[in-house]
């Protein structure tokens, strides 16, 4: 496998700097000048998303995937007759280095007299461990290999990457270089190895993907850390991060790798979340309170997504704390990625669609801290949010994140069932669980 090359690093950064020109190369699957190599052969994805269909004729037209991630623009004159075209998300992105979802463009084998433009809209989480400048688009061939496209047009403002093609097949985005793991959750004092990989061509043609190999160490300029912990002295493409012996205030720690080619640099980042399984929180900058959940995290299917529920608690001398934390998780692009949920008021139309949290540090359950507060006899959601840093997709997978409430409402009950608000409190917390069911 090729090492990450000097020419490629410079070319990628230069291409990104020119992305505002919106230039795109036309890809022909039968181009005899494509680079032969030992290919990575993968499974073919299975359709899983909603099918979007449109009829497009000689005048041209546009079709969007059901979630608007993929836009296909067919110009006038590309088709000679009306043609039903469709796009559908697949269950897995099997492309080497793949990130985000893969899509099937139908009918397979359809060709155009003029190039069509395929545009992917990427999320920030889909560049975790990598960088937008290192994204490319690839398609799967009939023999189940993958061809990465050349000179993709990147727009970091619109979060889009585009390429022109004359054919339909299965298409996906990939990271041409990244560090792994891009995210990890470890206990205090635990260590994790971080490696840098790449699968990048040295020419401007479309490239047969071979799978990821370690980046050549001569292009490693510097490893660094933002936050607590320490790095091993190895300055090659593999380094070891060791967490501090306690849960740090700055969490997660950010481990960065700066690659350098001549005067050009690009930085890859990994986030390392440090805490044991459970949930910790503090009120008004007070001491941290550590709680655990004997039952673990429950994930309940709801509509087109999931609803997560966890109850934690701790009982010790002078303290009895309980926490109830619930939040929604959309099936689309929410596994193994990060996302942010602001606090909202609950109503009949958003049931099981918003994050909710209640906390108590008293055995009698009073006072109760919650995600909304009262002001001038009206309820308001607390400023702040619930941040999911990693959301596993299967039973036994990890889920971890943080939460912050700038104005958590303090509720007291006095004899009746109606709550009485008694001011606000600032609450921050972190959690890490395994999906129990």
From TrEMBL:
Key words, A-Z: Signal
Keyword Signal: yes
Oxidoreductase recorded as keyword: no
Signal peptide: 1-22
Domain ZU5: residue ranges: 50-177
Name used for this protein in its record: ZU5 domain-containing protein
Organism: Arsenicibacter rosenii
Organism lineage: Bacteria, Pseudomonadati, Bacteroidota, Cytophagia, Cytophagales
């Amino acid at each position: 496998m090729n090492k990450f090359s000097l020419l490629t690093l410079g070319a990628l950064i230069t291409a990104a700097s020119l992305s505002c020109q919106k230039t795109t190369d036309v890809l022909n699957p039968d181009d005899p000048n494509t680079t032969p190599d030992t290919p990575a052969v993968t499974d073919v994805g299975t359709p899983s998303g909603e099918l979007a269909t449109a009829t497009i004729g000689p005048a041209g037209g546009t079709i969007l995937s059901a979630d608007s991630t993929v836009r296909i623009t067919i110009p006038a004159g590309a088709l000679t007759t009306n043609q039903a075209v469709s796009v559908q998300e697949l269950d897995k992105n099997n492309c080497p280095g793949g990130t985000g979802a893969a899509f099937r463009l139908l009918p397979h084998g359809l060709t155009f007299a003029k190039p069509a433009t395929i545009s992917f809209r990427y999320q920030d989480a889909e560049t975790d461990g990598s960088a937008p400048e290192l994204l490319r688009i690839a398609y799967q061939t009939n023999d189940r290999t993958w061809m990465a496209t050349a000179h993709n047009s990147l727009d970091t403002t619109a979060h889009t990457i585009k390429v022109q093609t004359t054919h339909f097949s299965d298409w996906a985005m990939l990271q041409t270089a990244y560090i792994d793991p891009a995210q990890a959750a470890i206990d205090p004092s635990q260590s994790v190895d971080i490696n840098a990989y790449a699968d990048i061509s040295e020419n401007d043609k479309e490239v047969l993907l071979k799978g990821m190999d370690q980046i050549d160490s001569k292009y490693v300029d510097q490893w660094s850390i933002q936050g607590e912990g320490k790095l091993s002295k190895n300055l090659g493409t593999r380094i070891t991060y060791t967490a501090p012996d306690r849960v740090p205030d700055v969490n997660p720690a950010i481990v960065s790798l700066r690659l350098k080619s001549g005067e050009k640099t690009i930085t890859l980042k990994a986030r390392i979340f440090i805490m044991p399984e459970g949930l910790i929180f503090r009120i008004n900058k007070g001491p941290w309170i550590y709680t655990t959940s004997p039952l673990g995290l429950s994930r309940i299917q709801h509509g087109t997504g999931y609803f997560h529920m966890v109850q934690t608690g701790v009982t010790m001398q002078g303290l009895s704390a309980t926490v109830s934390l619930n939040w929604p998780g959309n099936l689309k692009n929410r596994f193994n990625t990060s996302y942010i949920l602001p606090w909202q008021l609950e109503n009949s139309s958003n049931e099981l669609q918003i994050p909710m949290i209640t906390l108590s540090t008293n055995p009698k359950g009073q006072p109760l801290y919650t995600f909304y507060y009262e002001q001038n006899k009206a309820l308001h959601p607390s400023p702040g949010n619930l941040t999911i840093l990693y959301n596993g997709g299967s039973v036994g997978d990890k889920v971890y994140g943080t939460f912050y409430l700038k104005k958590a409402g303090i509720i007291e009950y006095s004899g009746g069932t109606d709550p009485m608000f008694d001011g606000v409190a600032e609450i921050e917390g972190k959690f890490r669980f395994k999906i129990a069911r």
